[in-house]
Write a structure and sequence with these properties.
The protein has 260 residues and is an alpha/beta fold. It has nine helices and eleven strands. The chain has one domain: Protocatechuate 4,5-dioxygenase, Chain B (3-Layer(aba) Sandwich).
């Protein structure tokens, strides 16, 4: 993370972080984690998509006390987990569902590295489907808390026949340039601070942003809390910027959502 040159961003409320294999996405992820103002934070929500069939319909919480990493344990905020488990759309997930989902797992070593020995607790949530308003309302209460932060786990465009997605934004000389333009339009939609704009973008393009629902969840919670924000793109990379029509590529975005 030091190699990225990223520095903590005052008033940052959330970051978008990729979750592919470290050899692919860790350099981009470092920009997001390096921007977290960790000294001001006591609680971190970690929201990620569910890539497999889940034991819950919308949002899944973990019935654990800590998440073990090679660098030490991250303590769960058990009180908040219990509180949220009573909210419509947020259920306790099975242990198997959590251990099988890489979108959360890939973030934990990074988190422990920046948390260190600080008294910071985590609230991991897997999100399979859009959450009902009751769950958005519950999460929005934490948006107003300056000591609570959100990490959103998401890769961006998954391009290629193997992903079932070969759309390219028109007017570009290469496929890679078209994919980059498509992703930038997605970042711009998030920066609009209007979840409906982001939803309309997804419907219009079909962009295969796997963490689209966690991103939308944070946007909706910020809207409900009345917290204005801007988005700063920190880094962007593609696994194969020279991809051809027979190849495939996945995009990685580091971005910060900043209050004010």
């Amino acid at each position: 993370m030091k190699d990225s040159g990223a520095k903590p961003i005052p008033n940052a409320k959330a970051v978008i972080v990729p979750h592919a294999g470290y050899s692919y996405s860790a350099p981009t992820a470092a920009y997001s984690f390096g921007s977290i103002p960790i000294d001001d934070i006591k609680r971190i929500f970690v929201l990620g998509p569910c890539h497999r069939r889940c034991s819950f319909r919308q949002g899944g919480l973990g019935d654990f006390t800590a998440w073990e990493t090679l660098f030490g344990d991250l303590k769960f905020d058990v009180d908040v987990v219990q509180e949220l488990s009573a909210v419509e759309g947020l259920d306790m997930a099975t242990n198997q569902a959590f251990t099988a989902e890489h979108s959360l797992e890939m973030q934990m070593p990074f988190l422990k590295t920046i948390v260190g020995d600080r008294d910071v607790k985590i609230v991991p949530i897997m999100i399979a489907e859009p959450l009902p308003q009751a769950a958005i309302d519950a999460l929005s209460r934490y948006m107003a808390d300056p000591e609570t932060f959100f990490v959103i786990s998401s890769d961006f465009c998954h391009w290629g026949a193997g992903f079932g997605y070969t759309h390219v934004a028109p007017g570009h000389e290469t496929i890679g340039a078209g994919i980059a333009a498509l992703d930038q339009a997605g970042i711009d939609a998030i920066a609009s601070a209007d979840s409906k704009t982001f939803i309309n973008y997804l419907q219009a393009t079909g962009n295969t942003i796997c963490g689209r629902v966690p991103i939308m969840t944070v946007m909706q919670a910020l809207e409900k809390a009345g917290v204005p924000y801007s988005v700063r793109r920190l880094h962007y990379e593609m696994s194969d910027p020279d991809v051809n029509e027979r190849g495939q590529s996945v995009s990685y975005v580091a971005a910060a959502m900043i209050r004010g």
